[in-house]
Amino acid sequence: DADVTQTPRNRITKTGKRIMLECSQTKGHDRMYWYRQDPGLGLQLIYYSFDVKDINKGEISDGYSVSRQAQAKFSLSLESAIPNQTALYFCATSNGQSTDTQYFGPGTRLTVL
Amino acid sequence: AQKVTQAQTEISVVEKEDVTLDCVYETRDTTYYLFWYKQPPSGELVFLIRRNSFDEQNEISGRYSWNFQKSTSSFNFTITASQVVDSAVYFCALSEAYAGGTSYGKLTFGQGTILTVHP
């Protein structure tokens, strides 16, 4: 089984709808992240969490919210989806130690019509 | 603020050619980490290498090699004898760190280089 899983893998929704993307990990890592990828722009950090009680905004947090339900679960919500939030969304985890390396989930392709 | 630049948007080569992907970074920290990730057509992000700012030794892993030069703030990636399976988008990324070495955790990515290897 994959160490980092994301659900759903693909989602089409309409403008104004609320949508939640979920991420689970079995790596035992404390740190979890949400990124979005747009063509030609690399990946941009949306939110990150270093433990269950520590959540921080990234570069592009407007229009998004997150919830860290447990060490292994970190969900991303779009409160009222808009078309320019159409993108590929990645969850990542890392151990927060000197060997800190982020490992990514398979991604969720979100289309907002 | 930290920044990563991958000036090559797209590279096209013929199988068995060597290819170098460039990465230039900016940071004010003296302790930081550099990464390369591969994104094949299937879309997932695959970790390739992590290098800390205190280790300037070049690294070789099979057909892959990395050249880290602090003097020019570059961390270039070379694929020797390229293969069709190397076709992917390659990302360079930077993470700043505390003086003790613990990463801040946030990765800054370059825009990516699309590598196409033709048979």
Describe this structure in words.
The complex is a heterodimer of chains A (113) and B (119). Helix content of chain A is 0%, strand content 56%. By secondary structure, chain A is mainly β. In chain A, strands 2, 4, 5, 6, 9, 10 and 11 form a 7-stranded mixed β-sheet that branches. In chain A, 36% of the residues are buried. Chain B is mainly β and 119 residues long. Helices cover 0% and strands 51% of the residues of chain B. Chain B is built from no helices and 12 strands. In chain B, 31% of the residues are buried. The interface between A and B is medium-sized, with 28 and 23 residues.
Entry keywords:
heterodimer, A: 113 residues, mainly beta, seven-stranded mixed β-sheet, 56% strand, B: 119 residues, six-stranded mixed β-sheet, four-stranded antiparallel β-sheet, 51% strand, elongated
The Cα radius of gyration of chain A reads 13 Å
Largest sheet of chain B: 6 strands, mixed
Q: Give the number of DSSP strands of chain A.
A: 11
In terms of DSSP E residues, the strand content of chain A is over 45%
Instruction: Indicate the proportion of strand residues of chain B.
Output: over 45%
The unreliable regions of chain A are: none
Shape designation of chain A: globular
Q: Helix share of residues of chain B?
A: under 10%
Which chains make the largest contact? A-B, 28 and 23 residues
Q: By helix and strand content of chain B, what is the structural category?
A: mainly beta
Work out the radius of gyration of chain B. Answer: 14 Å
Mean pLDDT over all positions of chain B: 92
Query: How many helices of chain B?
Result: 0
